[in-house]
Amino acid sequence: MGRFLEIVLDVPQSALHAWSVQHERSRRARTAERLDAALVKALDEFPQAERAERPDSPGAESRSATRQTTSTRFQQTEKMAEGGLQVMLETSPDGRRVVVCQQKCYSPGVTAREILYEAPLDADTPVGSAFAAVPEEHRDLLADAGDLAPLTTLACKSDAWQWPAADGIVVDIVFDRFPASTGGDAAPARELRLTTPFADNALGPSLTALFAVACTLVAALPAFPVLRRAFDRAYDATDPHDAAEPARATAIDLAGIATPHAALIAIGHSLADQWFGNDAGVRDAVSTEFVHQMRISQRRLRTALRIFPHWEDDAWKTRIAPDLKWLGTVLGNARDWDVFVDSTLPALAAADTDGARWITICESADARRLEAREGVQTAMGSARYAQLALVWLEWLSGLPSREPPEEAADTSLRAYAQKRVRKYYKRLISAPKLTTLDESARHKERIQAKYLRYTLEFFESIASRKTRKESAKTVARMQTVLGDGNDAAVALRYLQQIDAPPYQSGFAQGWCEASKRYTAQEGERLLRRLRKPKITGGAGG
Predict the structure, then answer these.
(1) What pLDDT score does 58 carry?
(2) What are the C-alpha distances in Å from 330 to residues 80, 254, 336, 377, 454?
(3) pLDDT digit string (tens) for 157-189?
């Protein structure tokens, strides 16, 4: 019983297999059991990790031997979901136990969970019969829920360790693995859950300890941070995102938020949803759209810190920004080759009287595209990426308890948003006529359009109706049009890299110049019709 903070690290099947090949030279088949044993052995070899001999804290869920349980999660009513209440039935060789817990997102990637009640349950005894002993403030809510239907049941094997950290804090590590469903194609799910007691008077040190242990683990093991546990990701009906589909940016509700600091926290949640809704898809190469959306999430993140520059501390400048640039470069290269192969080359072939002349070039370009994709998969599967993701989540987790910077301490959200929107709008409309600019200068104006677009997206909920319906759409269209012109410029460089024959090079030169000329003209038209955006909502004046 008690409260604790939790971070979850996913252990993908493909990454675990590659790690096992690198660390074990045996030619024996790498079965699921053997892969599990290899990871358990690696955890045992950490000098700081000690096998948990008894459940001293809510996070230590198994004894020194592997523990086998079957967990059944029950449906939530709407009121239960609002309060974060969950009911579980755990069955193990020791018997049946009912567990009632309350969990909430403390910050992206960090869950605050409290065990409200747990007790043994006799065989064939209904789960609801145990609710009479639940703390009074939650008893009526569970009683009103009536007979809860089971949602799903998962078998799980677990091993546990304890890791003494600084300031006397102990981090519990549990390695859970859920076998694949019988007859299914899905690989077994594996995750490392890191927990430590949630003490209000030591919240900062607890978070620091959790993230420090997590960073040590991902530096040596094929593990990557995720926002929620496998159980929650698979069976939370309130989650609108289908993990099999790329995650796109969603609207951010800033209504009622009074300060820029609180707005940045809300924006951070949105950025995390898009980032971590796409990273597994990029690693597994399911769809090129995952790469596209992942790249957008990184662009939105970098723009957010341009809007909120005074929040950049030493951790951001030294531990986050350099690796964000590295990741953005890798993603950008892969995305540019995707666009070249899937859009630009087909358009060139369609414009030619003999499209067959482009077959060899398309094949060469596709080979380069696969190289770029392999590069981004390697990057996303690296310890460097896992540590970047953790450091960013740690930075986000510190915002709720951090004082706002002095430069924005007395500024309302409305005033702050108005100033930022006005800044990017003035920069954009002060540009010379786009048709008179060279390629490099036009690209810079496209970047200014991107800054204004993402700024309006972040503040959409407090913008005027005309801004949402007209200005935001106009600047989005302008960025897209100028992006098409930039794609044409990239195409010419890529054709040189794959040694395109003179005919195709000459043909592409004329086609791309016409494309750049048209996009400059259309971009100019959109720029001159762009209405001044207005921020009318949000608290303050």
Answers:
(1) 44
(2) 43, 32, 10, 9, 21
(3) 999 999 999 888 999 999 999 987 544 455 679
The more confidently predicted of residues 21 and 535 is 535
- CA nearest to 478, candidates 446, 439, 456, 513: 446
Q: What is the maximum span of the chain, computed from C-alpha positions, in angstroms? A: 82
Instruction: Kindly write down the DSSP assignment for every residue of 246-298, as one continuous string.
Output: ---------TT--SHHHHHHHHHHHHHHHHHTTHHHHHHT--HHHHHHHHHHH
Which residues make beta-bridge pairs with 192?
9, 175
User: What backbone torsions phi and psi does residue 171 show, to the nearest 5 degrees?
Assistant: -100, 125
Helix (H, G, I), strand (E, B) or coil at 156: strand
* Domain 412-534, CATH number (from 1.10.260.40, 1.40.20.10, 3.20.20.300, 1.20.58.2190): 1.40.20.10
- Rounded to the nearest 5 degrees, what angle is found at the Cα of 223, between the Cα atoms of 222 and 227? 160
Give the pLDDT confidence of 312-356 residue by residue, as tens digits: 999 999 999 999 999 999 999 999 999 999 999 999 999 999 999
* Token digits of residue 101: 């817990």
The pLDDT of residue 61: 44
Q: Which of 87-91, 151-155, 242-246 has the highest mean pLDDT?
A: 87-91
- Determine contact, residues 77/192, Cβ cutoff 8 Å: no
Residue entry with tokens 């920004």: 321
Residue with tokens 């040694």: 499
- Domain span(s) for CATH 1.40.20.10 in the chain: 257-408, 412-534
User: Is 205's pLDDT higher than 90?
Assistant: yes
Distance CA 474, CA 449 (A): 10
Q: Looking at the chain, which residues constitute the CATH 2.40.320.10 domain(s)?
A: 2-240
8 Å CB contact between 207 and 394: yes
Q: Are strands 224-226 and 110-121 parallel, antiparallel or unpaired?
A: unpaired
Residue 181 per-residue DSSP state: P
Pick the CATH number of 257-408 from 3.40.250.10, 1.40.20.10, 3.40.440.10, 3.90.226.10: 1.40.20.10
Q: What is the share, in percent, of the chain residues with pLDDT greater than 90?
A: 77
**Got the DSSP string for 366-415?**
HHHHHHHHHHHHHHHTSHHHHHHHHHHHHHHHHSTTSPPPGGGTT--HHH
Fold adopted by 2-240? Hypothetical Protein Pfu-838710-001 (2.40.320)
